[in-house]
Amino acid sequence: MTTSADAHHPTAWYRQMGSKEKSTFWACTGGWVLDAMDVQIYSFAIPAIIAAFAMTNADAGLIGTSTLLASAFGGWFAGAISDRLGRVRTLQITILWFAFFTFLCGFAQNFTQLLVFRALMGFGFGGEWAAAAVLIGEVIRAEHRGKAVGSMQSGWAVGWGLAAILATLFFSIMSQETAWRALFWVGLTPALLVFFIRRVVDEPEVFKATQGKLEASGRKTNFLEIFSPEIIKTTILTSVLTTGAQGGYYAITTWLPTFLRTERKLTVLGTGGYLAVIIVGSFLGYLVSAWLNDRIGRRTNFILFALCSVATVLVYTQVPVDNTSMLFLGFPLGFFASGIFSGMGPILTELFPTRVRGSGQGFAYNFGRGIAALNPMFVGMLSAKLPLGQSIGVFALAAYGLLIIAALLLPETKGRVLTAEA
Fold it and tell me: Sign of the CA dihedral 307, 309, 310, 311?
């Protein structure tokens, strides 16, 4: 029997999980680690790709944007498909998809081919999160859902770190032309995870029970139900919540390095030490936020991390700092801006009914991603009239303000037990 103290112990939740819960946790976490690795590879390969294809910075940015926008559509699609085909099968398909197209990127011969391959890779990248988050959310018991799903999210920092290590290794032992291609070829490795998933991961019981009830009543899941009068309020508010979190993240991570280099004249930004501090901060932020989700609740945790993210941005843009200070400031930047995402999977899982949970979760998260992808452009446009630091602050504050409003209007779902329904 789980006591109240045990439920909030930082590590006891894992020991208390059953074998099916642990298998699902590691399958979903592994998928997210390798997904992050495949996505982040591009950022390390950009200089070599620009040289290889005689691209401009704008061309490189367009490839990044196309990946992000395609991932939004991939998440919508995969979420809806998971309500029809099942969570596990959809997870397998999306992993194979993003791994295959990452691999193909290594064979691109020009800008156009790379643009197409990265966009198709993005479609699977967005779909993988949608399938994994709903799968793990339905399998893990209510009292540990926040910790488990949030801990899965920490896999992003691990995958980011793997990409950094591989890039450092490959560019030190291979020619530049071979190294960037080899990075993408390694991106095929996530396909191996599918064999593990096929052997040890089953569909959630609540999903199977719901499918049985739907079949008995002669009904089928309908993606459009998330826009029905009974669910539309939840769909709108969760979309605003995810837009705020991702809008703030993109505004900060896209433009802060440029601001610090051009206006503060700092040189630490391009160093491996600064990147390592941010990655470690992100990893710990995910884990602490995951624990807090089950301790203080989803809504309070969102508001706490949003306020701390805003405070971090203000320090970065308004307080004079030197290279040494900036190195240490990378920790809270990664901690708060990344940690806020640990609560997304749990609250989205708990707010949508089982029959359309994949559709609702996939749409809300990726609607936010699609809209938030415009934030870097808006920051750039505003910087024509205001200093860049102020422009970053304006959009970060607006984004996190949206998140706080949505969090206040949504119900608290901590500990909610998922049920099967027709």
Answer: positive
